[in-house]
Amino acid sequence: EPFVADEYIERLAWRTPGGGSRGGEAFDPKRLLEEFVNHIQELQVMDERIQRKVEKLEQQCQKEAKEFAKKVQELQKSNQVAFQHFQELDEHISYVATKVCHLGDQLEGVNTPRQRAVEAQKLMKYFNEFLDGELKSDVFTNSEKIKEAADIIQKLHLIAQELPFDRFSEVKSKIASKYHDLECQLIQEFTSAQRRGEISRMREVAAVLLHFKGYSHCVDVYIKQCQEGAFLRNDVFEDAAILCQRVNKQVGEVFSNPETVLAKLIQNIFEVKLQSYVKDQLEEHRKSDAEQYLKNLYDLYTRTTNLSSKLMEFNLGTDKQTFLSKLIKSIFISYLENYIEVEIGYLKSRSAMILQRYYDSKNHQKRSIGTGGIQDLKERIRQRTNLPLGPSIDTHGETFLSQEVVVNLLQETKQAFERCHRLSDPSDLPKNAFRIFSMLVEFLCTEHIDYALETGLAGIPSSDSKNANLYFLDVVHQANTIFHLFDKQFNDHLMPLISSSPKLSECLQKKKDIIEQMEVKLDMGIDRTLNCMIGQMKHILAAEQKKTDFKPEDENNVLIQYTNACVKVGGYVRKQVEKIRNSMDGKNVDTVLMELGVRFHRLIYEHLQQYSYSCMGGMLAICDVAEYRKCAKDFKIALVLQLFDTLHALCNLLVVAPDNLKQVCSGEQLANLDKNILHSFVQLRVDYRSARLARHFS
């Protein structure tokens, strides 16, 4: 640890008797001073001893440093001598190496022509045998030396091609015949070795045949034998993948160009096996069964592309992606050229059949909505006036909307989108997807939903009909559910196909147009339905409300809390509110309920102004309005509740004492109302004609 003088002195004083106050011992400065003096002397003696030791070590170190420096100098001199010897040896080695290389070049210059001359002499000897017409050499008669014979005949064949035909025609034909025989023998030997599974012999024979014209035939034989027994199961695609996997491991051990051989095998599989299989599967249904044809085409194309993806992991040359794409195109091009026409034709007939089957199940003959000038004129008049044009149709509660039909249409379209994505050329994909979407709009939106809306509109009775059954809200409910499904398919299946193309804006616009068209008819139907509801309430009030309800003959003998008309209207309103809530969602519920509530308030307001009120009759009117206000609470719309609160306050004018009329009219709920409205209610009192009441109100 580092030396600290203060701590050292403290420890020394602590160990000295009388140097501290421990145990109550008295402090003795003399004794402590004496201890310090003695200790200082001991330290001085120790310092002198250590100093002598340091000087001795320094002298020894200097002596050893001089000896080491001398030794280093001697080693440097020895190293210089060794380096000089090394340079001399290196120069000598370089000289000898130069001589050896020169000698080697001279020997090679002599030996190469000699070897060529020897080889030429042998070829001349073999050529003479062909000239004589008798092959005596062992290399031609011994079947075990077929490799050497193949090398010789291949060279003789090249030489023979350079000779003039008129003088050497016979020998050229003999050499060509022998060339052909040896080629056939080698191919036969390769075939036998392949059947025996002798990879080394196959590699040896293939290497010899590499320089022969029949090398490609050897590859063809190999490919043919590889496929023997490979396609025994029903799944030709799985068999092809297994075969290519097996051959890929073997082909590199046999051929010097394995990627070419494997590519040729794959090409043979595609152009022979797969093309034949695809043709058999598709031609059977091409003209007779469009549905099965499209399913088979999608399945076969998908399985072929999946097989192509598996083959991509093999080495097939530089551009294997293009190679495999061309093979797939060669198989399916005749089917893909007119795919979208078949798809649209099938989708059209299938959708029409689904709709017709539904209408047949309902025993319904579909009406022609019609187009043209007259129909367009009717539509414009109906949109502006909201008048029913033409006779009302009794639909017997049928909405003519079916979720099952919608699911079937959407399922067919979903499958069409999937096939379109897989089978369409990338450049044609957005255009084809738009055509499929147009079919969906035509049959789902126009032929089914729009027809149901038109039929529903025609089925809405006039507002003055009695006991009318209102089914249009059921149409609204089902149309809303169906459109959510339609919108989901638009986003999930169509958008990915057109998201990066100009067709996106066209599809969005088409969707927007069809929505707006439906919304106009839905709004029109809801408006007319609300009118019918108000009409039904009018019939109830007209049938049930009596003039004596609010001006009873016996003022002291009124036993009812509210009138019978009020009870029936309240029950009817509650049912309609519940029906509206069940038929719509989101903000539409509040919008429709607010419109119904405002019309309901106007009806009751106008209804109350048709009667005169005695004091007890006024109280009964207040009770009726209170009951109507309870109905208004079910709407859960602030404006509607406020209207009925104000109406309730107005009814108080029917019973309040004449002296308090001005005070009531200036109250919080009535202060902002027009004076004519207040006056109109006061005029309904039977005592209005009294001078006192008229004076107080004025």
Automatic annotation (TrEMBL):
<feature type="domain" description="Exocyst complex component Sec10 N-terminal">
    <location>
        <begin position="29"/>
        <end position="137"/>
    </location>
</feature>
<dbReference type="Pfam" id="PF20667">
    <property type="entry name" value="Sec10_N"/>
</dbReference>
<feature type="domain" description="Exocyst complex component Sec10-like alpha-helical bundle">
    <location>
        <begin position="148"/>
        <end position="697"/>
    </location>
</feature>
<dbReference type="InterPro" id="IPR048625">
    <property type="entry name" value="Sec10_N"/>
</dbReference>
<comment type="similarity">
    <text>Belongs to the SEC10 family.</text>
</comment>
<feature type="coiled-coil region">
    <location>
        <begin position="40"/>
        <end position="78"/>
    </location>
</feature>
<dbReference type="Pfam" id="PF07393">
    <property type="entry name" value="Sec10_HB"/>
</dbReference>
<protein>
    <recommendedName>
        <fullName>Exocyst complex component 5</fullName>
    </recommendedName>
</protein>
<dbReference type="InterPro" id="IPR009976">
    <property type="entry name" value="Sec10-like"/>
</dbReference>
<dbReference type="GO" id="GO:0000145">
    <property type="term" value="C:exocyst"/>
</dbReference>
<dbReference type="GO" id="GO:0006887">
    <property type="term" value="P:exocytosis"/>
</dbReference>
<keyword id="KW-0268">Exocytosis</keyword>
<dbReference type="InterPro" id="IPR048627">
    <property type="entry name" value="Sec10_HB"/>
</dbReference>
<keyword id="KW-0175">Coiled coil</keyword>
<keyword id="KW-0813">Transport</keyword>
<dbReference type="GO" id="GO:0006893">
    <property type="term" value="P:Golgi to plasma membrane transport"/>
</dbReference>
